[in-house]
Amino acid sequence: MVLTKFSNFILEYVSGIFNEALKELGRMCMSHLKSDKPQTKLGILNMAVEVIMTLEQQVRERNLNPKAACLKRREEEKAEDGPKLPPHILHQTPYPSLPGPPPNLPHNPGPPQ
């Protein structure tokens, strides 16, 4: 009787660990495949096979021609993210500088009279 309870406890414990690992695998695969629909355990395993095969192919291409693979990856990243502004442009003020003295603003009083 005690052995049965203990074996059931171990079975549930290992099953919980397995299910958590499978969920994590599913999240990783969905991020690679840009998918967010829920999957069954079998679906997650099939996705994992697809992701692994894709990554293997990318590694083979990179090993055969590293320069072309790098250019291809950069093009794909640009297509995914869209145009990006360089950091030095992001930190500029939104208004162009105007010639002449600065305008008289409350925080920038004019010359004394």
Automatic annotation (TrEMBL):
GO cellular component: chromatin; nucleus; transcription regulator complex
Keyword Lyase on entry: no
Name of one Pfam family that matches: HLH
Location in or out of the cell: Nucleus
Chain positions covered by the region annotation Disordered: 70-113
Compositionally biased spans, kind Basic and acidic residues: 72-83
Main location: nucleus
Native organism taxonomy: Eukaryota, Metazoa, Ecdysozoa, Arthropoda, Hexapoda
Gene3D superfamilies the UniProt entry points to: Helix-loop-helix DNA-binding domain (4.10.280.10)
Biased composition (Pro residues): 96-113
Occurrences of domain BHLH (ranges): 19-55
Alphabetical list of InterPro entries matching this protein: bHLH_dom (IPR011598), HLH_DNA-bd_sf (IPR036638), NeuroDiff_E-box_TFs (IPR051098)
Protein keywords: DNA-binding, Nucleus, Transcription, Transcription regulation
Keyword flag Oxidoreductase: no
GO function terms (MF aspect): DNA-binding transcription factor activity, RNA polymerase II-specific; protein dimerization activity; RNA polymerase II cis-regulatory region sequence-specific DNA binding
Full protein name: BHLH domain-containing protein
